[in-house]
UniProtKB/TrEMBL annotation:
Keyword Signal recorded: no
Keyword Transferase: yes
UniProt-listed SUPFAM superfamilies: UDP-Glycosyltransferase/glycogen phosphorylase
Full protein name: Uncharacterized protein
CDD domains: GT1_Gtf-like
Domain of life: Eukaryota
């Protein structure tokens, strides 16, 4: 076959069903597609909308979807297909449910006229996706949407992880992957990047961040109380650059009533202009032994919106977060330190005010606050009720342009932008990954 008629290599992409995992995998597959790789994206019906921007950018021969029904599970409510609809304690049930896709995917691959040469899988699913790839005789490429600092720190404790069957099994399967892709960049923490290659025992480890967002507009969103154009118009009306605090805690964190009251009081006392993203109540993470009905979560303090009219926006539901963080008027961001939010804040050039709550948030705090001095600590813990006076002071001071944390953060941003440029470490990593896939039989 001549080189001109040679088919592009075909891979299967399987995401973990959470926006912080699906969206970076969408962005990664876009970069592979423009480098000549054909991708079939496995997705369940309620998560299909995440792929709309990706599908619209490529023809059907480059990006395809394999839509499979979400398998039922006795411990998951009917209709649940995404982690934002359950607590973090349900993730093992989610893994178990999704493992039922093994046989349908196996049959699809065996009957496909141009079967995939590799599976690009979220590491959370490696307990069954890696055995699937092995059974098909193809390679597994693990995708880890966290920073290399988090991954290397956690997996350095492998002996402790082995006591937990699932995490030990996931670690073992991931370490057996042919290659690993991190949603991070080598310059962020050179020592941990090298350490991670040591854990993997090979050099097929690629840091690819910051990935260009396929689309930051309404296609990636959902229902909202304030349309995007009104939010941007409000920001445009702000006369002073870096004068707005953005407050948001991602798709899986829901604040209880006491936390909402303390945060609302802090925003009032601070005197700053702000945008507060309030997640829809009744879903996501709630405190142990706490009522999970909507009356106890996401309760906006009575009268707050009237009292802050003109200087504060409270948005219920989806927000155009990347667009907000890139606006000239926004100066700081009170965040849970989810890695996707960290990268969006970095690209926006807004200083992070850290309230880590669970899982990798604490490792991100160790890196950004304790080691690099590039973010401001506010409070720690999923159940913490902040002191409103202290938090108000932190929010007000976070907008000061000469803070040492802001200087360190902007230096990190410059390194990230350089990594993504042609010739940069992440750009070259994407080129190398695509070239390696192209050489698969």
């Amino acid at each position: 076959m001549s080189s001109s008629s040679k088919k592009n290599p075909h891979i299967l992409a399987i995401p973990w069903p959470a926006s912080g995992h699906i969206l970076p995998l969408v962005d990664l597959t876009h970069q592979l597609a423009i480098r000549g790789i054909t991708i079939t994206f496995v997705v369940t019906p309620k998560n299909l909308f995440y792929l709309n921007p990706l599908v619209s950018l490529h023809d059907k021969t480059t990006i395809q979807t394999l839509v499979l029904p979400f398998p039922s599970h006795p411990s998951l409510p009917p209709g649940v297909e995404n982690m934002q609809d359950v607590t973090q304690q349900s993730y093992l049930h989610m893994v178990t449910a999704l493992s039922e896709l093994y046989n349908p995917i196996m049959q699809w691959c065996k009957s496909h006229p141009s079967p995939p040469v590799a599976i690009l899988t979220d590491a959370m699913l490696n307990t069954w996706t890696h055995p699937l790839a092995s059974a098909l005789g193809i390679k597994t490429i693990g995708f880890l949407p966290s920073s290399q600092y988090t991954v290397s720190t956690v997996w350095n404790n492998y002996q402790e992880m082995k006591r937990d069957f699932f995490h030990g099994d996931m670690f073992h399967c991931t370490m057996e992957n042919w290659g690993l892709v991190l949603n991070s960049f080598a310059e962020l923490h050179t020592k941990s990047f090298g350490a991670f290659k040591g854990i993997a025992k090979h050099d097929r480890v690629w840091g690819v961040a910051p990935l260009v967002t396929v689309k930051a507009g309404a296609e990636r969103g959902g229902h909202t109380s304030i349309p995007s154009d009104e939010v941007m118009a409000w920001l445009d009306s702000c006369p002073v650059e870096k004068s707005v605090v953005y407050v948001g805690f991602g798709t899986e964190i829901t604040l209880n009533k006491q936390q909402m009251e303390a945060l609302g009081e802090a925003l009032e006392k601070s005197g700053v202009r702000f945008i507060w993203s309030v997640k829809k109540p009744g879903k996501g993470v709630v405190l142990e032994n706490e009522e999970s009905n909507g009356d106890e979560q996401s309760v906006i303090p009575t009268g707050l919106e009237d009292r802050v009219a003109g200087r504060g926006l409270v948005i219920r539901g989806w927000v155009p977060q990347p667009m907000i963080l890139k606006h000239r008027a926004v100066g700081s961001y009170l965040t849970h330190l989810g890695w996707g939010s960290v990268l969006e804040g970095l690209m926006g050039g807004v200083l992070l005010v850290a309230w880590p709550m669970q899982s990798d948030h604490f490792f991100n705090k160790q890196l950004l606050v304790d080691e690099l001095g590039a973010a401001i600590p506010a409070c720690v813990g999923l159940g913490t009720i902040p002191d409103s006076a202290n938090l108000a002071k932190i929010l007000s001071e976070s907008l000061h342009v000469n803070r040492p944390e802001r200087i360190a953060w902007m230096k990190l941003r410059e390194e990230a932008l350089n990594a993504a440029k042609q010739g940069g470490s992440s750009y070259k990593a994407l080129d190398e990954l695509a070239n390696q896939i192209s050489n698969f039989n």
